[in-house]
Amino acid sequence: MNDQAGLPSLSDLVVERVGFGIFVVDRDLSVLSWNRFMQDHSGFAAEDVIGRSIFERFPDLPRAWLTRKVESVFQLGSFAFSSWEQRPYLFQFDHDRPITGGVDYMQQDCTFMPLMHGREVVAVCVTISDVTHVSVMQREREEAVAKLREYADRDGLTGIANRRYFESRLADEFSRWQRYGGQLSMLLFDLDHFKRINDEFGHVAGDIVLRSMAQRVADVVRNTDVFGRFGGEEFALLLPCTPLDDALYVAEKIRRTIGDEPVEVQGVIVPVTASVGAATARTGSADYEGMITEADAALYAAKRQGRNRSVALA
């Protein structure tokens, strides 16, 4: 208190009016000071908290963590800090962000400051900063970046992986196969006479056929497989841990999935079949591109043999 007419000191006014929480505890975690921010957000006035253990009024606080944090400041005599990214909040305070912000409580940065008397730490001052807006903005930014990254990996028409992403995964799996061995296969397939479908029914119908075929195949492949559009009407399927014989079995499954039922486009029945080429990683292969070349050769062999079939080269 200021001795002039009993007015509060300027420092007291600052502590009371700042836009962040300030409270002080002793080594036993008893509260020595409690500012207006803490009062307004906790619902407890200073006289209800000061002189009591912080855990008496706030039993939900992380007791072990907070005790260690304060004790380290007493022992080392140096500042400590906790970010919302490490621990989203210390106190379960409400925030003023909309529910769509995606956070339950005010997100908080906490600073632990030693209060010294000479060389001795006599108390620890803890500040609570409301960083809810920052945290929500960062989460939204991270989600946006993740979506952009996902879109960059996806084919715009069919929604499955694009060629760039497929080849990246194929390169990773091929490198893993080179280090650890095992089995690795892939399929290349395209829709037979697709140009005829475009010419007869139109490009809009062709796009509907491509989307329909992509969805059919996506519904029958394993979660561990990578299914992508290679370009135009050509698709690829990466089959980790799969020998060539099993890959041919999958090829036949895909061929039947595509060809057993025509696609209906605006009331018009469009028959669709596919030719499939299979390849496997072979000892002595220099890189993953050899698998693509082999699968491509097998695909064209299937077309030369009459289409609507699966082929693997010996």
Automatic annotation (TrEMBL):
GO (cellular component) term, any one: plasma membrane
Record-annotated PAS domain positions: 14-77
Catalytic activity: 2 GTP = 3',3'-c-di-GMP + 2 diphosphate
GO BP annotations, alphabetical order: cell adhesion involved in single-species biofilm formation; negative regulation of bacterial-type flagellum-dependent cell motility; regulation of DNA-templated transcription
GO molecular function terms attached to this record: diguanylate cyclase activity
Domain spans labelled GGDEF: 182-314
EC number of this enzyme: 2.7.7.65
InterPro entries xrefs: Diguanylate_Cyclase, GGDEF_dom, Nucleotide_cyclase, PAS, PAS-like_dom_sf, PAS_fold, Rev_trsase/Diguanyl_cyclase
PANTHER family xrefs: DIGUANYLATE CYCLASE DGCM-RELATED, REGULATORY COMPONENTS OF SENSORY TRANSDUCTION SYSTEM
Name assigned to this protein: diguanylate cyclase
Taxonomic lineage from the root: Bacteria, Pseudomonadati, Pseudomonadota, Betaproteobacteria, Burkholderiales
